[in-house]
Amino acid sequence: MVVSVLAGVCLAATLAMFATGLSDLRQMLATKSVENIQFLPFLTTDANNLSWLGYGCLKGDGTVITVNAIGAALQTLYILVYLYYSPVKRPVLLQVLLLLAVVVTGCGYFSILVDTGTRLTHLGLFCSVFTISMYLSPLADLAKVVRSKSTRCLSFPLTVTTLVASSSWTLYGLQLHDPYITVPNVPGIVTSLVRFWLFRRYRPEQGKPYSPLPA
User: Fold this and answer.
1) Of 55, 47, 39, 49, which is closest to residue 17 (Cα–Cα)?
2) DSSP character for 205?
């Protein structure tokens, strides 16, 4: 019963976190421009979703599969729209091709070179490292906030959804005794709490609102 409730919370919170990127999508469609839109978060989140999708399929976890299938579809949509409106398409296309190469190489490695008995462990470790690096990536923005004394580069809705999502996934992993789900989500809790502290210390009114895509 507890696992089912946590699975539902994980699903809702994570989809809400991914949906914060819809504001960027609306902006691109409305302005027909990618100005002030960050592309790298689209790409890294898509790679993360695809990795966890593979982990969910290998483990047979419906919650992990559903969340990351929807997440991968959303990030792919963001990437395609960004590519369409980008005035300089070659660098963007090269990054997309690099992502595809990494995904294909990873699939080949885990499917062919890793034996069945350790495949889930290897893939779980890979996904964990990827997720931890994504949760730690906003630290550069946090340093920028402290220097500028402004939270204009932070998204409050994204901070809330990240905290709820990372907390629920941590509890979900604990219930399943799966360290590859539990451990990588702890940094998400820590960085979210730090961002809440920054919002309290440097009021949003000191800078204009900004809503980047989750990374």
Assistant:
1) 49
2) G
Report DSSP state, residue 1.
-
Positive or negative, the CA dihedral 67, 69, 75, 78 is negative
What is the end-to-end Cα distance of the chain in Å, rounded? 31
Q: Is the Cα dihedral 7, 62, 55, 82 positive or negative?
A: negative
Do residues 58 and 120 lie in contact, with contact meaning Cβ atoms separated by under 8 Å?
Answer: yes
CA dist 49 and 46 (Å) reads 5
Radius of gyration (Cα) for the chain, nearest Å?
18
**Cβ–Cβ contacts within 10 Å for residue 121, how many?**
11
The neighbour count for residue 100, using CB atoms within 10 Å, is 12
The answer to whether residues 181 and 172 touch, using CB atoms and an 8 Å cutoff, is yes
Determine the Cα–Cα distance for residues 3 and 174; give it in Å rounded to an integer. 10
Contact 34/82 with Cβ under 8 angstroms?
yes
Whole-structure pTM value? 0.80
Asked if 169 contacts 181 with a C-beta cutoff of 8 angstroms, the reply is: yes
Residue type, 196: F
pLDDT (0 to 100) of residue 140 = 67
Q: Which residue has the higher pLDDT, 117 or 159?
A: 159
Residue (of 73, 76, 57) closest to 124 by Cα position:
57
pLDDT higher than 80, residue 113:
no
Tell me the C-alpha distance between 148 and 166, whole Å: 27
Closest by CA to 127, choosing from 189, 58, 47, is: 47
Predicted local confidence at residue 32, as pLDDT: 92
